[in-house]
# Entry
Amino acid sequence: MTDGAVVATLTSPGERLLAPLLDGTALAVRVPGFVPTAAAEQMAERLAAHPSLSAYRNTPELVRVGLSHYETHDADGTTNDKALLDYLSKAEQLMDEIRLCCTPYEPPLDRLWRMLDASYGLERARIAGMPMFAGVCRVFPEGSELLPHNDSLMRDAPGLPLGGELDAQLAANIYLRVPERGGELQLWDLRPDEEQLAGWRAPGSAYGADRALLPPPGCEIPVAVGDLVIVDATRLHAVSRQERGTRIGLSCFLGVRHGRPLVYWS
# Structure
């Protein structure tokens, strides 16, 4: 990371959308207005009322529409076979239902995936030949936060060959609703190892670090409705407390394999 590197703001996504992250010159790439405000609000209203809106299986303080591969593991890191089967068998149906909540507009993640496919090549990640779910909608109620953490498919799914193929793991977030106060995206230029993560673990948390044990974040991004933000998921990141209002967004992971197409999943 070069000195002073923070956020690369692009007026529109293009062929070099991921370049600032992959070459280490930015902590985040931001495309303001990727989704028009009126469209984003309509999508947020529908997703917030979706009948499958519920807490993560293993992190009950977080709420989502759709599924996350993270939920297919128990607290000790082992795969829960029933949860994995549920995740894979419901993937297509839930992705279609989320797309339906976006009509009459183009689903924002479909648009992003189409652009990435044109620039880099892109394919859906699979487990034993079955497509993984992609495009989870996360809802952060007032008062909630996302503790500092990082994401690593190799760590979170050690038995999945894809994890060992990745040269980088990015996270894309599209913001459909943001709180009136709070809910900033916080980024650190830190890639902690497992020993460091264990030493920073917040009391009572299954995933996150204690902010009091960390240096201040390298940057805080007060995201706006319609923004697309992509970060390096292997670096520490967090969402500050939603002080007033709710945050709703669509997200997925992007796996980089040099010389091969990107892969995407949630």
